[in-house]
Design brief:
The chain has 343 residues and is of the alpha+beta class. The chain has four domains: 88 residues, Beta Barrel (conserved putative lor/sdh protein from methanococcus maripaludis s2 fold), CATH 2.40.420.20; 82 residues, Beta Barrel (Elongation Factor Tu (Ef-tu), domain 3), CATH 2.40.30; 60 residues, Beta Barrel (OB fold (Dihydrolipoamide Acetyltransferase, E2P)), CATH 2.40.50; 62 residues, Helix Hairpins (Orthogonal Bundle). It is 24% helix and 40% strand. The termini are far apart.
Length: 343
């Protein structure tokens, strides 16, 4: 009897263990992540296309000299404001100064000779030929003095207009030659945007047209002052210049984007909040057949809250916004009423 009870107890324990094992192996229902999606849309939010440009002053000068000499003094630094005529740097002019003194002495001598010939001519004691000869010598000596003074002026590098020293290329003691860049000066007045545009991008544009642009997160307006499409034989692109109307006082050399309206082609865009980064690759999750499918993209410009897509996506596909920690192939549940159509 005792043996029977023990067997029954073991049988019951074994049954309970198997029953527990069966309950633990039963799959539990999992809650699928609920996601919001937006449809990949064509077009740009402002109804045009963006062209890269550089902001610069309408007055820019790279100062140089036509003399070969040593730099003796540098009187300005980067960022310094100067007025027109300010001496920026000086070159060694000792040789030229010596030549000038000799030339001025020669000029004084020939001028004295000229005065004597003129006096003799009044007394009919000299010939017309002698007078003409000394007059030619005076003119030649004067030209020599003028040329030396001009060369000495090239050793004094002065600001041609008021502005800011953008860069200083030399230091005291450097030896410079003709045409070598010395100091770059940028005017503080009007500013302009400079861009290269293709013939397609230039269609519909004309001198005097006003264009919108963005720079450092700020929006502005510029007016076209020069337009030469197709000037480069290699890229077939030309130069666009647009004077900044507003805002004023922007930082020189800043990268900007000009909105060129009326282009025939459209751009596929997705929200920047939908982008995921994996190392150097950028992509989005697309809702497809109840799963999140990771799609790598080739991106173009990013304007505002949108990123343009060059390849990897088709218009109308359901892009998951704010994907968080989603994984490729993970089942998802699209939130009801949360399918937007982009911008």
């Amino acid at each position: 009897m005792k043996t029977t009870l023990t067997a029954l107890a073991l049988s019951g324990a074994l049954f309970g263990t198997l029953a527990c094992g069966q309950r633990s192996d039963r799959p539990e229902a999992k809650t699928l992540p609920r996601v919001a999606v937006t449809l990949a849309a064509t077009g740009t939010p402002e109804g045009g296309d963006w062209v890269a440009a550089t902001l610069q002053s309408t007055r820019t000068a790279m100062m140089s000299t036509r003399m070969a000499a040593q730099v003796t003094r540098v009187l300005v630094q980067e960022g310094q404001r100067v007025s027109a005529g300010t001496l920026l740097l000086a070159l060694n002019d000792q040789d030229l100064q010596g030549q000038l003194k000799a030339a001025e002495t020669g000029l004084a001598t020939i001028e004295a000779q000229h005065r004597r010939i003129v006096a003799l001519q009044a007394q009919r004691a000299s010939t017309i030929a002698e007078l003409q000869q000394v007059e030619a010598q005076v003119a030649q000596a004067q030209a020599g003095v003028t040329a030396l003074k001009a060369n000495i002026a090239y050793t004094q590098i002065r600001a041609p207009f008021s502005g800011v020293v953008q860069s200083r290329k030399v230091s005291e003691g450097d030896f410079v030659g003709p045409g070598m860049p010395l100091v770059e000066l940028v005017g503080e007045g009007e500013q302009e945007l400079v861009a290269t545009v293709s013939e397609r991008e230039a269609k519909g544009l004309k001198l005097g047209s006003k264009l919108a642009f963005t720079v450092d997160g700020a929006k502005g307006e510029a007016q076209i002052t020069a337009l030469a499409p197709g000037g480069d034989p290699w890229s077939h692109k030309g130069t666009l210049r647009a004077r900044v109307l507003k805002p004023k006082g922007l930082r020189q050399g800043t990268f900007a984007r000009i909105l060129v309206p009326g282009l025939a082609t459209e751009t596929l865009t997705v929200p920047k909040s939908a982008l995921v980064q994996r190392g150097e690759l950028t992509g989005v999750f697309v809702a497809k057949d109840g799963q999140a499918e990771l799609r790598w993209l080739s991106l173009g410009e990013t304007i505002g809250d949108l990123a343009s897509v060059r390849a990897g996506l088709k218009a109308g596909e359901k892009v998951i916004d704010n994907p968080g920690a989603l994984q490729d192939g993970q089942p998802i549940d699209i939130r009801q009423g949360e399918v937007s159509h982009g911008k």
